[in-house]
Design brief:
Chain B: It is a multi-pass membrane protein. Helix content of chain A is 63%, strand content 0%. Chain A is an all-alpha fold. The radius of gyration of chain A is 23 Å and the shape is elongated. Chain B is globular and about 70 Å long. The chains are: A mainly alpha, B mainly alpha.
Chain lengths: 159, 618
Amino acid sequence: MDETTSDDPSPRTWDDEPESPARTSAEEEGPTRTSVWPLVVAMGLTVSEVGVFMGVYPLAVGGLVLFVASVAGITHEAGYTGRPWRLAGALGVVLVAVGVWMVSTQVPLAVDPVVAAVGGADGIVLRGFSVVGAGLVAAVGAAVVSAMGDGDVDDGFPA
Amino acid sequence: MVGEQLALTALMGVFLVAVAGFLARMEDWRSYTPLAGGSAIGDAGYGGHAEKPAGIVRWFTTVDHKDIGILYGIYALIAFFWGGAAVLLMRAELAAPGFDIMQAQFYNSLLTSHGITMLFLFGTPIIAAFSNYFIPLLIGADDMAFPRINAIAFWLLPPGAILIWAGFFTAPLGLGIDPAQTSWTMYTPLSAEQANPGVDLMLLGLHLTGVSATMGAINFIATIFTERGDEVNWANLDIFSWTILTQSALILFAFPLLGSALIMLLLDRNFSTAFFAVEGGSPILWQHLFWFFGHPEVYILVLPPMGLVSWILPKFSGRKLFGFKFVVYSTLAIGVLSFGVWAHHMFSTGIDPRIRASFMAVSLAIAIPSAVKTFNWITTMWNGNLRLTAPMLFCIGFISNFVIGGITGVFLAAIPVDLVLHDTYYVVGHFHYIVMGMIAFAGMGALYYWFPIVTGRMYQRRLAKMHFWLSMIGTNITFFAMLVLGYLGMPRRYATYQFDGAIAPLAQVTTLHQIATVGAFIIGFAQLIWAWNMVQSWYEGPELDDADPWNLKDDGMFGREFQWFETQKLAADGGESEEVRADGGEVETDGGEATGRVSSDPRSDGGYRKAVRRVDDE
């Protein structure tokens, strides 16, 4: 008599997480259900959106830097990049390009017209410069931090 | 100006330092091993937290679908009370014809906030609460396909809500930023010409919630397609997952369009574009773009509650869902048709009558799959072994309200009727039967049904039934009175109704408004009972003896989520595996002797079919 025969002799429990082949070394060492980055990504996106659109330049620069850094961080944590700094620098360069494009939609890309537009407090030009500024901070910051360490978790940098 | 910018720069610097400090503190979290702390809710009904950081940090850093589901739920309920408080103020104002407790501007602000809050900050997130928590359990997945994106999608919502409500916080400060007065439809030219920056903040907040919903939808589609367990296929995928899959597809096509339209409106407001200007793309373009999103949004909000009812109703009817396949087909049909009906919101705008007729035809056609669902629910209950628990009562109330809300919608889909009733309280009554009578009712039913899994405790049944009956009575008093008000010609969106008696009979209109106000306060009182019940039961409710608080095993209705719960309880209790199996089967006894066995056979309703083999047969 087999009273409790089961078709599946190894019942699944959710505590015993099967390891995904895509897991990174960082995840295998530590907790699998926590990440600090999602909150920061959301904050970065929110602050940068409000800052750029409402023309509050400190918020625009800070928010975009935060967004770029956190995207690089979460991408690294998820194992899509080996080091976060190269992506952060690349995103910084993209921001510079976008900012320059924003400026170019309003004035020719020459010194005099740009200075005149800034002097006239042209809203779109100033927004473009805030994006360029954020891109420069991200790119230079990434280069500096990258030069200081290899970006691994053990370096003490939030990765 | 320069001083302000410098001050903001300094504040931004402080903010970034705070973020850096937060991240630096997180550096050590991998060594945290709290075994009991960290939960704001005591011993929840599930395990698996041993690897999480302690205290509030856990909730800020979690990517666990169950935790995120709880966060969605708490967020949605805060929004529910905000939107409810707004409408109670409005209903108090409408109890008499004149301006008695507020002016028109504040009424308009409350109207706008109520609509947007209930649809975007309560409706969508409360559905996401259930789907985040239970879809992975129902399909046998470990978690969502993209857990971090899941967390990002949630964390975009609180700042979105703050921006949407910002005007209410800043108005007392005298900054010149007031609450938006655009109504939730944000029709141009009204919304384009209000100079108030509070409108910009609201639009930005809405944009963030749209990004959040889109990220969530992509995640659910990927999860249901790629993360199903070995035993779950398309044939036995549960009905709730089907509705979430359909809803996610609708979100994928609808919300990016809303985001684009919002950006166009922001550009019109701030950068002198002319997308919705009379001399440009025309104000009617906004209505087309908005309703191309807006009508699918109705089904984005209502399909998952229909799935919840299709899932819960059979459990207390003692029968499988009648016509499962056709309920799935009707879900898909509604999803497809929902993109072909948007102009029925614009019948009175002067659009081409031939186009108008085609939209009328498609709108009427939606009645067919809707009726398929309704008759299948009724047939499921027919001759069933009904148990009138609180979740079941809410499901039955849902169907009852859908009959009224749905049929009034069929009338509105007919052009001649719509031209008479357009912009009256009839429309308000119709869609509140849907959003309150259906969506909120299904949400409440599901909250009660799954309360034992989330908390490991049982709620207070008497309070739950009081909650249902007061909600049901209040809903029907309020919104039926609105239907009648519409027949009398009372226009919607007004803070006052001191009009000429030739337009509508003022005495009757006043009486009906007072009836609606009384009903609204009954609904509000019912929700207070519910809130008390939830909070007190979460902390002090009786702990469950076993994993089958609804006695679903008796009818072979023990769903996959309760099977999972049983494994958690077994792990927490430390055994008893000889009596209860981890896959949800149980040993049946007959007179104290083990007499049979149960084999697991996943079905489309998520339960298992009993295959009892008698011992004396062997």
